[in-house]
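User: Please run a holo structure prediction.
Assistant: Happy to. Please share the sequence and the ligand.
User: Here you go; the ligand is 2-keto-D-gluconic acid.
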Amino acid sequence: MTRPDLIAIGAYNSWDIEAMEAAYTLHHLPAIDALPRLPEALRGQVRAVAYQGHHAFGGAEMDLVPALGLIANFGVGYDAIDVEAATARGVKVTNTPGVLNDDVADLAVALLLAQGRRIVQGSDWVRSGTWAKKGEMPLNRKISGGRVGILGLGRIGREIANRLAGFKMEIHYFARTDRDITGWTFHADPVSLARAVDYLIVALVGGPATKGLVSAEVIRALGREGVIVNISRGTVIDEPALLDALENRRIAGAALDVFVSEPNIDPRFLALENVVLQPHQGSGTVATRMAMGELQRKNVAAFLAGRELPTPVN
Ligand code: 8YV
């Protein structure tokens, strides 16, 4: 029996490649811009693409694979994929929700603590010998018991809030609807949320609907003692407004895992002492990346067998 073809796009780990090769005739491309270089006859017969990456996968790319029926995304966020264009072409899109919640929430908490307790500077203080020369590092700020705002109380936002409740923090959140959670305060708009808290954690999905939601006005409402943590998508924050506020000390700091133009981030971030920067590694543990790959392949297998998709988007 001939095995189905599968196009896998992205920087996969060896275990994902091996698993896909075991089940399919795999055509692995490093990035989506290599798609037109696959022979036309091959593109004409492929029905499924396993996609990993943050470059746009739009209608034009879908049209290069005319028999395409599935784009299985590696990641919960699918803002790189034009879902409307996919739906218009009868192409199903799937993602990998759930399996990464813990890791992304863990990183959000780690970023909050790293920013407030200046963990990176503390490490430098030891390594540079400054501790021995000058003694104690400057005092930093207390996190436990503070007021935190979760912007987006979805699966990941909820995990972050649960963790921070354990830090005795006052929990505020913005979501589409009031979730009526005892002890947590709902805010109907991001400005009201920012005004009520010292720490704003961005956990919303990316895409056009949330673009620039953390606006200059929201940043202003957060105030001079405010800290922003972002583990979702760079696009949710008005990045120039954030940079202006950080440079002019109109907020206290930021801790960011995601940026507008990854991995070539705005160099203005690199000059700032009051930011913690991470290379979009929220889901980046071996266990979670394995689980994400497995869920992606379950979607591919279900589609090719004509079964119900485990985690459909459209
Ligand atoms: C990436 C992510 O998918 O799940 C998401 O939405 O942003 C990440 O888990 C991961 O970096 C692989 O590209």
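The pocket of 2-keto-D-gluconic acid is lined by residues 52, 74-77, 100, 280, 283 (CB under 6 Å).
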